[in-house]
Amino acid sequence: MSRLHSHELDARTRRLLRSLIAQYLVDGEPVGSRTLSRSSGLDVSPATIRNIMADLEEAGLVASPHTSAGRIPTPRGLRLFVDSLIELQPLPHEEMARLQRELPPGQTTTRDLLGNASALLSAMTRFAGVVTVPRQVDFPLRHLDFVPLPDARVLVILVFSDNQVQNRVVQLAKPLEGRELEQAANYINTHFVGLRVDDIRAHLLAELRAAGSELNRLVANATELATASFAPHADGDDVLVSGQTNLMACAELADLQRLRELFEAFQQKNGLLQLMESCARAPGVRLFIGEESGFAALDGCSVVTASYGTPGRVLGAVGVIGPTRMAYERVIPVVQATAGLLSDALNRAATAS
């Protein structure tokens, strides 16, 4: 049975394994055969249960942490549990109402909305809440203005569909008069509002190649300004983390060296961002248990994520980081609902603009 899979478990073994893991996730203690006999509701003897547990241990699904008769699930056992044994329930009405109340569409900037989501995930799960921040250029442009500055510089004021405002100073090859800047801004606002900046730049370059002589100067000015204004730009932190200190209360993560490595990962963010970006590229819920994440700092942790975005466009991922001993049947619906509400809020904001 060393390569045992979920479809190879009979109904009785599946029920016992589910009961063992459910009990362990509640109290964190090894589960003995007598306790399992009572909690599973099966009419089998403790000796029969011990034999089944021995088979499951040989298969690598449970382990004995010490000489006691009790067993705990291994990461592989937890993986089988969340893949095929868990019984997910819809998010309770009061918790869904809380998410809807605290993640309202159209009332804040996207960054504020994502910050609220990160804090809510942490508060509702008692673990760390994580949300990736999309690039601002992934949102349609609502309006822009050009303000002349000395030395051929221009202040660019960009207003995006998510209510975010960005100010950028760009350097031109030669100065443009205030009238020329106003004409270029009017041209872009009239023809390209509602598009993302990469699309605006591509349209302007195409128009510049096709424009007649009377439009060449206007389109050339607009193209130069757009190329400078829409260049890649750092929008701040790429991932928001809330509630890291909640993990200090988790007995499984109480080792000081482990906590130090985990907090350093939250601080540096690079590895965490890569993990979350890979999650955003996959639809639905993704779950990593222990070493499955490939991120050494998260060994001993579980990561539950779901992607969010607007129709046809993924913008990022939301998630929860906690110990492997977490109430998956509760955490997964919270993450799913948060991702769905974020998507709804961003879609409404984009439609309203």
UniProtKB/TrEMBL annotation:
<comment type="similarity">
    <text>Belongs to the HrcA family.</text>
</comment>
<dbReference type="InterPro" id="IPR002571">
    <property type="entry name" value="HrcA"/>
</dbReference>
<protein>
    <recommendedName>
        <fullName>Heat-inducible transcription repressor HrcA</fullName>
    </recommendedName>
</protein>
<comment type="function">
    <text>Negative regulator of class I heat shock genes (grpE-dnaK-dnaJ and groELS operons). Prevents heat-shock induction of these operons.</text>
</comment>
<dbReference type="InterPro" id="IPR029016">
    <property type="entry name" value="GAF-like_dom_sf"/>
</dbReference>
<dbReference type="InterPro" id="IPR021153">
    <property type="entry name" value="HrcA_C"/>
</dbReference>
<dbReference type="InterPro" id="IPR036390">
    <property type="entry name" value="WH_DNA-bd_sf"/>
</dbReference>
<dbReference type="InterPro" id="IPR036388">
    <property type="entry name" value="WH-like_DNA-bd_sf"/>
</dbReference>
<keyword id="KW-0804">Transcription</keyword>
<keyword id="KW-0805">Transcription regulation</keyword>
<keyword id="KW-0678">Repressor</keyword>
<keyword id="KW-0346">Stress response</keyword>
<dbReference type="Pfam" id="PF01628">
    <property type="entry name" value="HrcA"/>
</dbReference>
<feature type="domain" description="Heat-inducible transcription repressor HrcA C-terminal">
    <location>
        <begin position="112"/>
        <end position="332"/>
    </location>
</feature>
